[in-house]
């Protein structure tokens, strides 16, 4: 059974990222935008049992993962589109992706992502082959060993979802701030 994506459009997510970069007085170039969108889609699917953050398909472009519809729409300038508000669980994930990966250079993100199996396997099929969401979930959702660079985006690995998602801060019954994460049951493979 396929579930609908959290957002109505990939434009909602792209504009959120662009606006967040502007809020931080940074320029977000198109290549880096696509790398961050790719990571957002992957980590959202890991955190939400394979559900998509946005109705988007990423392809293995020779330059790295790209969402072709957004690529064309942003070719000359920022397009005029009606945007919808992203639900809180989406903005929480996007904020976590921005904080975790936004400081990386475009080249670092591109080099690392091109060596990750979801991209590499799709590119081996041919340029512009679709990067399967299941492959993204399998790779970005796995636990890492110390040799894979725990917590780092490296050529051979990526941080586990628990190292990417920032916890929400809520108040306990006594008013004390506590960190909370979305509950994710362990899969049978982890037992």
Number of helices: 8
How many structural domains can be distinguished in the coordinates?
1
What is the helix fraction of residues, given as a range? 40-55%
Indicate the mean pLDDT.
Answer: 87
**How would you characterize the largest beta sheet?**
2 strands, antiparallel
Uncertain runs: none
**What does the overall shape look like?**
globular
Distance between the termini: 25 Å
Backbone structural class? mainly alpha
- Cross-sheet strand order for the largest sheet: 1-2
Q: How many DSSP-defined strands?
A: 4
Strand content: 5-15%
The Rg value, from CA coordinates, equals: 17 Å
Q: What is the helix/strand order? A: HHEEHHHHHHEE
Protein name: Antitoxin SocA-like Panacea domain-containing protein
Task: Quickly describe the structure.
With 191 residues, the protein is mostly helical. The protein has one domain (10-190). It is 43% helix and 7% strand.
3D architecture notes:
This is Antitoxin SocA-like Panacea domain-containing protein. The chain has 191 residues and is mainly alpha-helical. The protein has one domain. It contains eight helices and four strands. Strands 1-2 form a two-stranded antiparallel sheet. A two-stranded antiparallel ribbon has the order 3-4. Helix 2 crosses helix 4, helix 2 crosses helix 5 and helix 2 crosses helix 7. The longest helix is centred in the N-terminal third of the chain and has 18 residues. The radius of gyration is 17 Å and the shape is globular.
């Amino acid at each position: 059974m396929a579930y609908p994506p959290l957002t109505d459009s990939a434009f909602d997510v792209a504009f959120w990222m662009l606006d967040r970069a502007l809020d931080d007085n940074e320029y977000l170039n198109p290549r880096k935008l696509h790398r961050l969108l790719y990571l957002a889609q992957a980590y959202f699917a890991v955190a939400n049992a394979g559900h998509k953050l946005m109705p988007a398909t990423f392809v293995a472009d020779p330059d790295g993962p790209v969402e072709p519809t957004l690529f064309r729409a942003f070719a000359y300038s920022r397009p005029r589109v009606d945007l919808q508000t992203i639900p809180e669980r989406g903005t929480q994930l996007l904020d976590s992706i921005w904080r975790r990966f936004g400081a990386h250079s475009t080249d670092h993100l591109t080099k690392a992502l091109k060596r990750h199996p979801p991209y590499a396997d799709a590119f081996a099929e041919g340029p512009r082959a679709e990067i399967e969401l299941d492959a993204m979930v399998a790779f970005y959702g796995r636990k890492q060993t110390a040799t894979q660079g725990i917590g780092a985006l490296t050529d051979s690995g990526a941080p586990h979802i628990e190292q990417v998602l920032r916890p929400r801060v809520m108040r306990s019954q006594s008013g004390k701030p506590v960190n909370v994460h979305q509950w994710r049951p362990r899969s049978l493979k982890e037992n």
